[in-house]
Amino acid sequence: AQSVTQLDSHVSVSEGTPVLLRCNYSSSYSPSLFWYVQHPNKGLQLLLKYTSAATLVKGINGFEAEFKKSETSFHLTKPSAHMSDAAEYFCVVSSGGGADGLTFGKGTHLIIQP
Amino acid sequence: GAVVSQHPSRVICKSGTSVKIECRSLDFQATTMFWYRQFPKQSLMLMATSNEGSKATYEQGVEKDKFLINHASLTLSTLTVTSAHPEDSSFYICSALGGGADTQYFGPGTRLTVL
């Protein structure tokens, strides 16, 4: 069994300030972890993925996430928020390296204040 | 690359009718596709896994006779919602497994409204 908990349903930051979206996971196996972003009226886009290689994963658009097994966390960060980052973000876990059906967190709505 | 399309993007139908949704991988072949459902302001829930040339595998609680899945080719999977009812109204999203078979690429989704 596997699950994902996104600790914040909404996060609001000012443009140019750091972003932190928190995610904790539970998995019976060595998990693969992903962050996806969903912009309004657009498909889900993969930001980054962790599949048991380096624990610090760099993704697109300046995002990165660090896998911490001891804390069962996979928080998403970005040093400086941009208005275009406003969207819904999903933390996702898979036991099959992404080849199995994915288990999604409930999502975090990121709001960027001008 | 790795583009997945869905058709239609929106559909409105009457209760009791059937609706077919198509999911296509446009620039890669996908032996495995997935169907998810997303309720308003909620997360995605996996409905079924679709493998080319074989029967789909449904998640617990998903009625296979209501949600018919066909994966007849390496680039096309279809989801047919049979005898649709208002409670079937939702956002249906497909994904296709590509990128070395460890990354799912998602379609833009289909908004189904059953009156």
Describe the structure.
The complex is a heterodimer of chains A (114) and B (115). Chain A is mostly beta strands and 114 residues long. Helix content of chain A is 0%, strand content 54%. In chain A, strands 2, 5, 6, 10, 11 and 12 form a 6-stranded mixed sheet that branches. The model of chain A has no long low-confidence stretch (mean pLDDT 91). Chain B is mostly beta strands and 115 residues long. Helix content of chain B is 0%, strand content 55%. Chain B is built from no helices and 11 strands. In chain B, strands 2, 4, 5, 6, 9, 10 and 11 form a 7-stranded mixed sheet that branches. In chain B, strands 1-3-8-7 form a 4-stranded antiparallel sheet, with no helix packed on it. In chain B, a hairpin with a 5-residue loop joins strand 5 and strand 6 (57-58). Chain B is globular. The termini of chain B are far apart. Classes of the chains: A mainly beta (114), B mainly beta (115). Chain A binds chain B through residues 32, 36, 41-46, 49, 51, 90, 97-107, and chain B through 4, 32, 34, 36, 42-46, 49, 59, 93, 95, 97, 101-109.
Shape of chain B: globular
Radius of gyration of chain A: 13 Å
Tally of separate helices of chain B? 0
* Mass-distribution shape of chain A: globular
Sheet with most strands of chain B: 7 strands, mixed
Work out the radius of gyration of chain B. 13 Å
Question: Per DSSP, what share of the residues of chain B sits in E-state strands of 2 or more residues?
Answer: over 45%
**How confident is the prediction overall: mean pLDDT of chain A?**
91
Topology:
The complex is a heterodimer of chains A (114) and B (115).
Chain A: E1 2-6, E2 10-14, E3 19-21, E4 23-27, E5 32-38, E6 44-50, E7 56-58, E8 64-68, E9 73-78, E10 87-94, E11 103-104, E12 108-113
Parallel strand pairs in A: 2-12
Antiparallel strand pairs in A: 1-4, 3-9, 5-6, 5-10, 7-8, 8-9, 10-11, 10-12
Chain B: E1 4-7, E2 10-13, E3 19-25, E4 32-38, E5 44-51, E6 57-58, E7 67-73, E8 76-81, E9 90-98, E10 103-106, E11 110-114
Parallel strand pairs in B: 2-11
Antiparallel strand pairs in B: 1-3, 3-8, 4-5, 4-9, 5-6, 7-8, 9-10, 9-11
